[in-house]
C-alpha cells in the first residue's frame, strides 16, 4: 500500500494531468484566432509541487516515463518532453528548498519553468524541423500568451495545491 501511495498514485495523477493539460491546450488554441497559440502547462506547475516528496532519482524516473508518454501521445516523436521534463524535474528537486520558500518564489518558479520549457521546446522543434515559425512570431503569438495564461492559472489553483502538498 505504501508503494502505491508513494509512487504509483503520483505517477497516475501526473499522467491524468498530462492528458488534461494537452486537451486544455487544444481547447484554448481553438477558442482563439489561428495566430495565437495558448498552451497550458498545468503539468509543469504540478511537477513543482509533486517533486517535494520525491528523491531526485525517483523524480527523474517518473518524469522520464511521463515525458515518454507525453511525446508519444502529443508529438508522435520521442525526444522533446522525454528530455525536458526529467531535466526540469531534476532542477526543481535540487533547488526545491529555495523554490518553495514562499508564495513569491513559487510564482517566479512557475514563470521560470514555463519560460524554460517553452524556449527549449521551440529550440528543439526548430533544430528537428518540427516548426518553421520565426522566433519573433513564437514570442508574440505563443510565448507571451502562454506565460500570461499559466501565471494567472497558477494564481487560481495555488491555494488548492498548497493545501494538498504543503
TrEMBL record:
The keyword Cytoplasm does not apply. The chain crosses the membrane at residues 7-24, 61-87, 107-127, 139-161. InterPro entries: Cell_shape_determining_MreD (IPR007227). It is found in: Cell membrane. GO terms for cellular component: plasma membrane. It holds the Pfam family MreD. GO terms for biological process: regulation of cell shape. Keywords: Cell membrane, Cell shape, Membrane, Transmembrane, Transmembrane helix. It is a multi-pass membrane protein. The keyword Transmembrane helix applies. It comes from the Bacteria. Its main location: membrane. Belongs to the MreD family. This is Cell shape-determining protein MreD. The lineage of its organism: Bacteria, Bacillati, Bacillota, Bacilli, Lactobacillales.
Amino acid at each position: 500500500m505504501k508503494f502505491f501511495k508513494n509512487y504509483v498514485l503520483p505517477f497516475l495523477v501526473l499522467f491524468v494531468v498530462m492528458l488534461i493539460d494537452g486537451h486544455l491546450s487544444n481547447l484554448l488554441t481553438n477558442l482563439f484566432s489561428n495566430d495565437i497559440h495558448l498552451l497550458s502547462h498545468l503539468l509543469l506547475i504540478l511537477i513543482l509541487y509533486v517533486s517535494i516528496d520525491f528523491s531526485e532519482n525517483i523524480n527523474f524516473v517518473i518524469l522520464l516515463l511521463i515525458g515518454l508518454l507525453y511525446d508519444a501521445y502529443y508529438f508522435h516523436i520521442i525526444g522533446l518532453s522525454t528530455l525536458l521534463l526529467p531535466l526540469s524535474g531534476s532542477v526543481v528537486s535540487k533547488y526545491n528548498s529555495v523554490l518553495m520558500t514562499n508564495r513569491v518564489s513559487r510564482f517566479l518558479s512557475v514563470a521560470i519553468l514555463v519560460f524554460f520549457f517553452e524556449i527549449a521546446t521551440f529550440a528543439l522543434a526548430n533544430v528537428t524541423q518540427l516548426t518553421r515559425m520565426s522566433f519573433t512570431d513564437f514570442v508574440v503569438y505563443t510565448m507571451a500568451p502562454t506565460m500570461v495564461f499559466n501565471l494567472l492559472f497558477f494564481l487560481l489553483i495555488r491555494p488548492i495545491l498548497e493545501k494538498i502538498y504543503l
